[in-house]
Design brief:
With 233 residues, the chain is mainly alpha-helical. The protein is built from 6 helices and no strands.
Length: 233
Amino acid sequence: MEKTTQKELDSYFEIECKMKNQDRVIFETYERKNELESLIYNNKEKLGSSYKNFVKPEDVQNLLTILETANTWLYEEGQNSSKGMYVEKIDSLRPHFEPIARRYQQAEELKESYYLAQLALDQLTNQLRSTDAKHSHITVEERTAGAEEIEKLKQVFANSQKLQATIAGWENPVTSAHEVNNHVKELESKIKKIMGKPVPPPPAPPAPPAPPKEDKPNPANPAGSANGAGDKM
């Protein structure tokens, strides 16, 4: 049996590397093709559902045409295309649909932030109403001031939500989930400061009464001398 030469080993290794690279390219091409297919299908479906309120009505038909054109290419000319062509088609669709997806995501996050903010404000209100002995030193005035801050923020949120309801979904929102969360954090810090006020030290005990003063005899007029003078005839 002839011994395999180094040149042959190198040749086998090169062939193996080429095969692995071909497999990788085939796999990545298949992935990009599936990504394009999903992008077309998902956006087409969402334009009639979750994205509906975030696209101008006059733009919907144009977007559907863009998707249909991409879909036709995919199942005809692009059926056995290259990875690069699939990536190019994906990149051409993204500028049309990523802004819509972003507006939708912002609206969902804002909705959730308002819900969580309401829960947080309710918790802060309960903290101010605490009857726990460790909070007995918190004055009514301090608790009232905290409650007023909560009501102010509730009104801010109510006004923002009312204004948002008048704005179309494809326009910029009046606020963001980040801003709502920051407002809540600031208020939580204020309430924590109120309810975390240190318990004042107990009053100092009263000073003991001073001992009674003793009458000291006057050396210039001792009591005995006065008595002796009274006995003289």
